[in-house]
Every structure is written in C-alpha cells, then in structure tokens.
Amino acid sequence: MTSVGRDEPVRPTKWDEVAAAGSELIGGPIGRRALLGTSWLTPVRLIALVAIGMFALGMVQKLPCYNGGWFFGATAQYAHACYSDIPHLYVGRGFADGLIPYFQRLPGDMEYLEYPVLTGLFMEVASWMTPHPETIQDRVSSEQIYWLVNAGMLMACAAVMAVCVARTHRRRPWDGLLVALAPAFALTATINWDLLAVALTAAGMLMWSRSRPLTAGVLIGLATAAKLYPVLLLGPLLVLCWRAGAWRAYGRALSGAVAAWLVVNLPVMIAHDATGFHIREGWAKFYTFSQERPVDFGSLWLLISQRTGNPLENANVYATLLMIVGCGVIGLLTLYAPRRPRFAQLAFLVVALFILTNKVYSPQYVLWLIPLAALARPRWRDFLIWQGCEVMYYLGIWMYLSYTSDGEKHQGLPPEGYQLAIVLHLLGTLYLCAVVVRDILMPERDVVRRGGDDDPSGGVLDRAADVFVLGQAAPAPRHAAHFEGVPTVRWGAVRK
After folding, report:
1. Predicted confidence band of residue 392 (pLDDT cuts 50, 70, 90)
2. Which of 25, 301, 340, 369 could serve as a FRET partner for 347 with CA atoms 20 to 30 Å apart?
3. pLDDT confidence of 30, banded at 50, 70, 90?
C-alpha cells in the first residue's frame, strides 16, 4: 500500500476492502470529485447524523421495555434484551422522592448513590426535568419520562463522541463512522450513563491532538469525575512524553486533570460539622462499593469462579496485580518499540487491560473502548470481528439473566452458554489488542502510518524526535516538529 499526500483526506473505501464492499450498498466508493465535504453535508456532520440515527435505533430496540418490560416483571426486560438501569435507579436511588445524592441517605442497603459525582449531577439534572410522581400509579409514567430525558441528554453525548473521533485524525474523518455505526454502541447507549464520560474523554483526546494539553487535561479530569477509567489515559501520556521529552506538555495535562477533578469533587467530598472537616460518606460510596463488590457478571473472575466453584474472595488482589504487571508491559513496549506508539494505541491497550482484569464487565463498558478502537485500529474487518463478539455477549448476558430469573421454567441461556459468551467477549477484546500490539511492533502494518501520518492524535508528540528509548529506535520521522537536534538517550548512553 502506498501513502497518500500529506494534505489529502484518506478515503477508507480506497484503502479498506471491507469499507469498499460495504459502500456498494449506497452506490459505491466516494470519488475524488464528490461534492461531499465542500457542501453543507461535510464528513463530520454526516457522521454526527449517523450517530444520532443509530442512537435512535437503539431507543427503538428498548421499546418492549418502555411499554412495560421495566415495570411489570423482571423476565421480560431480559427476554427482550432491553434492560436499562436508568428507570430502575430513578426510584431505587431516591430521585423520584427528591432526595439529594451524596447528602441524604437512601432507604435500604445501598445508603448512598454509588456513582461518581459528575454522573450523579447528570442524573440529578435529568430528575429536575422529570415530573415527580404524586402516587404509586404515577411512578411508571415518571420512570418513562426520566428515561426519555436521560436518553436525550445521552444522545447529545453520543454526537459529541462521534464528532470528536472524526476530528481527532485530521485526514481521517471517515474513521468516525466506525463509532457511529458500531452495533454495540446502539445496543448499550441507554443502559447506563457511561456516554457522559466517553464523550468527555473523546473531547480530551481531540484537544490533545490539537496540542492543547491543559484543556485536554481538564476534560480528562472531568471525565474521571464521571467514571474512573479515563484517569488511565494519563499513564500512556506519561510514558509517551517521557520518550519524547515533552515534560512541559504532560505537566500541563496532569495539572488540568487534577484541578478539574478537585473542582467537581471537593464540594461534595468534604463535610464540616462540630468535629471539623472529614470525608463525606456519601461521596466515598462509589469507591467503597467498587472495592467491596464481589466478582460479578462478564468478568474473567466470574468465569473462573463458576467453573471451579471458588468464590475468589481475593479477586481484588489478583486484578490489581494483573493490572500493574500489564501496565508495566505496556510501558516497556512503549519504550522499546521501533517507533513511538501512537497515543490512541496505548490508550486503547490500557483501557482494554482494565476491562479484561476488572471484577465486573457490564455490557455498556464496551462504550469505553469503541472510540479508542476506532482511533487505534481504524480497520473495518478487525473492528467488526470485535463488535460481533460484543453483540454476542450483549445477548448472552440477558438470556442468562432470563434463565436465572424465570423460576423453574429456565427459559434462556444456561450457565455454560453464558460462560461461552464471556469467552467470546474476552477473545474478541484480546484479538483487537493483539493487532494493535502488532502495529506497534511493526509500524509498517499500521494503517494510519501507512497513509503517511505519524501520530495524528499525538498533538505535541506528532512527528517529534525521540529523547529516551530502550530499544533500537527507527529513524525520526521527517519534518520532526519538536526536539530537533536533541540527543536520544539509550541505556544511559547519548546517541546523536
């Protein structure tokens, strides 16, 4: 495959056989003289519209539950694969009763809302726009409205996510279609509130690609205030900036992330009473719940537990050790690779590692990886293989829950079938990780770099020379924008 001009947009129908074959459904590959891109319907706007359309299809898929499955029996919401946390938590976490998250105790065992602060604020804002039920009979209608309000807000997050991915790689806007058309995105978008953190993370990566590290850090900090996983992106940035010597940029990103997280969390985190300042119990619930919850659905640990009968009470220790070892391997890979890996590649690997080693894998966690996968490995074949595995897992967990909640009838998927679904999820994610690692070790196989780019998501790292490597680095890319003439340190020696 030959590279294209540095300023020429990359058309996936020219370089990707699966994209070219799929384009026949809408008239074939786009030509060089097509009006699309110069008219109002630019690639980015088209991708945003497609994402909204897929989100709407996902809402339609939830209709059986909207019309009664959430309220009149647990089995129906599993049998129709249309479950959502949103209507259930509207009542179960006190929003229907006007309780204030983190500050007021909930009835029952949960005591406080078990979500990070920014997600709790998102949920609370949606409840302000929902008429609170006056009677028990009104609750069904209120739950439906609450789900619709959240769906509208999450649809905006989905559009932001798709637009940010389309704009991150300047010459590859069409890679955003991988996100917009992902079937797992449509199926899981309204299960929970993960799209808020996903959109903020995608916006942070866009800002980093535009060499605006402080803004990128602020957005990553806000994303971490909505979900824990975005903080992991600071790890790859640390090692990449170490290899490139871009310490100032990393410092600005880290400062922005810490400041944004504190601005959101401190007002809720710190309580004051007659005894002085202390950590508010309601704020800490998310962290204590994550630590104390047992092995749960979708995880490697549940698979082992069900097959062996061992409850794996030390799963926290095992997961933490695997995560530490995996991050160390990713760090060494970054410093040994012949060319500095792209930011999106490492971001995908570290979040995938967290998903693979975590104690629980809820179906909507796939949303964390979809934008990262589109940027790390924008190849339709590999992306669709992975998505196929995730769709099978999505169906598998609901059929398994239908089996376990259907009394003595056991209509659904038995444990052995669900274990196969878990294996498919694990293998699909590992497959995508494997091809990303191969691209890092063999950069000539990387479809982004074969198109003539270095690291379009890298911002200050794009076409920067290396300052510190552990292996035999490849020659610096042409037109290195940063660190021209700076010596490269390899095993303590200076190499000019």
Report:
1. very high
2. 301
3. low
